[in-house]
Specification:
The chain has 258 residues and is of the alpha/beta class. It has two domains: 179 residues, Decaprenyl diphosphate synthase-like (Undecaprenyl pyrophosphate synthetase), CATH 3.40.1180; 38 residues. Helices cover 48% and strands 12% of the residues. The chain has nine helices and six strands; from the N terminus they run H-E-H-H-E-H-E-H-E-H-H-H-E-E-H. A six-stranded parallel sheet has the order 3-4-2-1-5-6, covered by helices on one side. Helix 4 packs parallel to helix 5. The radius of gyration is 20 Å and the shape is globular. The model has no long low-confidence stretch (mean pLDDT 95).
């Protein structure tokens, strides 16, 4: 992507200021979930020498995005940086991404303030150095008014399976008779055992790269969310794209399935 000209940069700043001024701050989402899609297609479109170059640009954008949400006092953000299905990709694609993620996790404590960071997903499937970097980040950011949740090796179906298993296991530990188990499995019980049980459901889900699907992300929690499918690849995602998504969200009438 060619660098914007000074005039274009100025026009974008003016447009951003207009979008910001027009936002109804009381109507902003309290929890935003993001599918950071399009790294490999961005690398091909930009003629980058390898995917690692695109991953680095994308993770720099991830840090920028966290700053944008902080500026607008968005209380909770959940970001899907690696799906469980992604683990089937060739090692020559995954290993450079793992290295970029490790660098990101080591960098984040210096970029965040008043933020609690937590990971969700099947981290046991990931290489030890990446898991260690994730745990170290959690330890360095254990508390805060803001919540940043990072989904790694995450699959929405697996989350629901795990939630039902934990619910049934808890009922068994409480010595609920087997004949009564089915009647004790309900939506409230499943929701209470999800990875994000201590978070409100997302109000807005943003997906970049132009794909108009969830691909299994927060299947249960996003049932009544609003969606914003943005055409640009994640590394090229701009603050103006984010502000447009927020503007559109604030203009929608949420019905929650009614």
């Amino acid at each position: 992507m060619a660098s914007p000209t000074p005039l274009r940069s100025l026009l974008y700043r003016v447009y951003e200021d207009r979008l910001l001024a027009g936002l109804d701050r009381d109507a902003l989402p309290r929890h935003i979930a993001v599918i950071h899609d399009g790294h490999r297609r961005y690398a091909r479109a930009e003629g980058l020498p390898d995917y690692a170059s695109s991953y680095r640009v994308g993770m720099d954008k991830f840090v920028e995005f966290l700053h944008w949400t902080d500026e607008l006092a968005i209380p909770a953000v959940t970001c899907w940086l690696l799906s469980k299905e992604n683990l089937a990709r060739p090692a020559e694609e995954l290993e450079p991404y793992y290295d970029v993620l490790i660098d990101l996790f080591r960098r984040l404590p210096d970029e965040l303030h008043d933020t609690n960071v937590r990971f969700i997903g099947s981290l046991d499937l990931l290489p030890a150095p990446l898991v260690e970097a994730a745990k170290e980040l959690e330890e360095r950011c254990p508390d805060g008014e803001r919540r940043v949740t990072i989904a790694l090796a995450y699959g929405g179906r697996q989350e629901i399976v795990d939630a039902v298993r934990d619910l049934v296991r808890g009922l068994a530990d409480d010595r609920v008779p087997s004949a009564e188990l089915a009647d004790r499995i309900d939506a409230e019980g499943i929701a209470g055992n999800l990875y994000t049980a201590d978070l409100p459901d997302p109000d807005l889900v943003i997906r970049t790269s132009g794909e108009a699907r969830l691909s299994g992300f927060l299947l249960w929690q996003a049932a009544y969310a609003e969606y914003s499918f943005v055409d640009v690849y994640w590394p090229a995602f701009r603050r103006v794209d984010f502000l447009r998504s927020l503007r559109d969200f604030t203009r929608r009438e949420r019905r929650y399935g009614r």
